[in-house]
């Protein structure tokens, strides 16, 4: 029998899930747009892309890394972070 080993790198990799509302706020779009991305997809350069999502207790949950990759594939342009310097 093989006993799995403890890997601190894997243990520290937390996966963050957000709701439709959180995804909409993160992307700067409406909730219906996020639902469309999940259910209908978007055609980008001739490819149909869907936003991956999981359903737990009848609520969509979206991995924030998946959302960021999806937005990158759409050509989403991120706003610059506010400058904290005076």
Descriptive notes:
This is Helix-turn-helix domain-containing protein. It comes from marine sediment metagenome. The chain has a single domain (14-74), classed as Multidrug-efflux Transporter Regulator, Chain: A, Domain 2, CATH 1.10.1660. It is 37% helix and 19% strand. It contains 4 helices and 5 strands; from the N terminus they run H-E-H-H-E-E-E-E-H. The chain has helices at 8-11, 20-27, 31-39, 64-74; strands spanning 17-18, 42-44, 47-49, 54-56, 59-63. The strands form 2 sheets. A 3-stranded antiparallel β-sheet has the order 1-5-4. The protein starts with 7 loop residues before the first helix and ends in a 12-residue tail after the last helix.
Helix count? 4
**Shape annotation:** globular
Radius of gyration: 17 Å
Low-confidence stretches: none
Outline of the structure:
The protein is an alpha+beta fold. About 35% of the residues lie in helices and about 20% in strands.
């Amino acid at each position: 029998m093989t006993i799995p080993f403890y890997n601190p790198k894997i243990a520290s990799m937390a996966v963050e899930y957000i709701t439709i509302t959180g995804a909409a706020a993160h992307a700067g779009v409406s909730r219906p747009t996020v639902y469309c991305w999940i259910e209908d997809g978007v055609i980008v350069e001739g490819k149909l892309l869907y936003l991956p999502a999981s359903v737990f207790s009848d609520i969509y949950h979206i991995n924030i890394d998946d959302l960021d990759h999806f937005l990158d594939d759409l050509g989403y342009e991120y706003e610059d972070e506010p400058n904290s310097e005076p």
